[in-house]
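dumping this here so i dont lose it
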C-alpha cells in the first residue's frame, strides 16, 4: 500500500536525534572534565555521571510498564509532580541556611 505522505529528508531525521547526542556528549565528556578540574575525586565523578545517565536506563525499564494502564499524559504529569516534590524536599528551606 502506497502512502501519499512525503518522506522527510534524512538530515532532518538525523537532526531530531541531535539533542540526545549532545546531552550524552556533555554528560560523558564535558561534565567529568569540569568536575576533575575542580579536583573532585574520581569515584564521586563516576557516581555523578552514572546518576546523570540513569534517565536513559529508567526509560528503558519503565517503557513497557507505562504503555499498559494510564495515558502518557497522566504519567508525565504524575512524574513531573513527583520530581517537583522531591526537589522541594531536597532543597534547603532558605539560601541563608546553606553552610558556606
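and the seq i came up w/
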Amino acid at each position: 500500500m502506497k502512502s501519499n505522505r512525503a518522506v522527510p529528508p534524512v538530515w532532518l531525521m538525523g537532526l531530531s536525534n541531535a539533542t540526545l547526542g549532545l546531552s550524552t556528549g556533555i554528560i560523558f565528556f564535558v561534565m567529568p572534565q569540569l568536575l576533575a578540574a575542580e579536583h573532585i575525586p574520581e569515584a564521586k565523578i563516576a557516581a555523578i555521571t552514572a546518576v546523570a545517565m540513569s534517565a536513559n536506563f529508567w526509560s528503558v525499564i519503565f517503557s513497557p510498564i507505562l504503555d499498559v494502564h494510564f495515558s502518557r499524559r497522566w504519567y508525565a504529569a504524575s512524574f513531573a509532580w513527583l520530581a517537583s516534590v522531591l526537589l522541594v524536599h531536597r532543597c534547603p528551606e532558605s539560601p541563608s541556611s546553606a553552610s558556606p
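The chain has four helices and no strands.
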